[in-house]
Write a structure and sequence with these properties.
The chain is α+β, with helices and mostly antiparallel strands. The protein is built from 17 helices and twelve strands. Helix 10 packs across helix 13 and helix 13 packs across helix 15. It is globular, with a radius of gyration of 21 Å. The chain starts with a helix and ends with a strand.
Amino acid sequence: MDTIIARTEFAAGRRPDHVSPEDSEHEMPQSISPLTADAVDLTDMDLFTEAAAPWRMFDVLRRTSPVHWQPEPAPNKGFWAVTRHADIVAVLKDPGTFTSEKFVTLEEVEDDSVIAARSSMLEIDGLRHTALRRLLQHRFTHRAIAGYADLVRDLTVRTLDNALAEGTSFDFVSKISAEFPIQVLARMMDVPEGDTHKFVDWGNRIIAAGDSDYSDGHGENASGDGHRNLPFGSPASLELFQYGRSLAAKRRANAGTDLVSLLVNGVPVDGVPLSGTEFDNYFLLLVLAGNETTRHTISHAMLALMQNPEQLERLRADFSLMPDAVEEFLRWASPVYYFRRTATRAAEIGGTPIQAGDKVAVWFASGNRDESVFDAPYRFDVGRQNNDHLAFGKSGPHFCLGSALARLELKIMFEELLQRISGARLIGPVRRVRSNLVNGIKELPVEVTPASGG
């Protein structure tokens, strides 16, 4: 009965968060008009503030138009939306045909000088990408990350203790999800503790510039050409650059082992020193990637556990499930909706012809609900096996550098949290980030039940 109610509310524009929102259109009652591929609009950011709308669009595209031409408002020309798991993986594995070098977002920029000024490691392919990646790769191996376990646990404990000290009702995002990963990253970068909240603010303004809570609601690059050379066209990028440069000046020629010192003093394996622009963009990428993915996964995982209390209790009773649960958290959250590639030559994706120069957006979130890969993909299952999710990408040269760190953070956070609470419930609306790039929750009001003896 609850499912029927949820579907009826979806038809009326109300999408409750207490019911799994991602019911496929073909499962809905006949009274609900079916969604067609032609009616899908992946550029409408307002749809991404709703619980169900993105998943309904992905379902329709996977079934009826898995490599789908999505028109865009001018001045953009449109893009191919790739929504099936196998096709997404094929694109990611072929950077020679599908390059990252014209940005990973949907913005169209033809000026090579702007592209060069704004390109981070995400937007560079080939030998230079490998050289930049290897500057810090040794600090993000599974073995190296294991050495951070005590630090991560200490910061987790402090975050949870501070949140719970204020009472059992609070905003989970501001008190825990946004607070915790940035503290970990700050210690790895040797950033003064009092400065960490600046990173959260900068990240919000850069990544979610289309959200009126963080900017003017239209993207900070709407202010004109003065910011066109900055990542995401955001003036907040310049603020972050200036902060990174001040750190670099202090670390230069010092034998520090923090991430900033390694960037400033390291020499890439191709022998070409990091330019000032490359340092700026690398620093920005560390701040954004080190915070956003884990932050939003923690929020979505908490929401899913509240919506599925039997899974919360199952995990509390058996922490040996935690490694599987972490993978399910990542699949379920899909914290990055898509990344864009650009075709360097004529090709095919899933039998669909693609022309040189076409934009191709691979929708990780859709691939993570692909029925051909995941059994009952809309069932949240902390013991799910064979979880071949795409939260970090899949193979290819751009597989997420920080994946081992994110997994460690998620594991320790929920180990510590579930020792402190026996349950939790929503006490207000879930507010989502207005973005089709990041699948973010910006407000999650909860009331937790302390565990016995907690």
